[in-house]
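Hi P.,

Sorry for the delay on this. The queue was packed all week, but I finally got your sequence through. Input first:
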Amino acid sequence: MKELLLLALLLGQPPAAPALYDEKASGAQQIEKALAEAKRGKKNVLLQFGANWCGWCHKLHKLCESDKTLAAELKKNFVVVLIDVDKKHNEDINQRYGNPTKLGLPVIVVLDPSGKQLTTQDTGKLEEGDHHDPAKVLAFLKQWAPKR
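Then the structure:
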């Protein structure tokens, strides 16, 4: 691994980030599966539209994995689905939810367990400088968590 990083640096190319989004997955199938899981667990579905080349997508994902409070909130209240929208992939899903990608990437759409769209969030509003603000992300998640 160190050799690959060194080679990338010598060639003047940044090392590739690991793929977050399944570039072959059907967004419709991903959502169908997530809705079934959300119904069983009494959770909402959080769709994160993005692409593997998107640096902000990687930043948001890393924050949600590494921040214990955010990770716990997501696990408790949401089924998360990463929808690949690179090169118009899953364009039908983007259109189904009102073209949220017009706001940029990543963009979040929250659904209730029946599939009703509750909100669309421009994640730029969750940023603070060069990163996503954990407090803003947490407030958003709490606002759109299912009412128990």
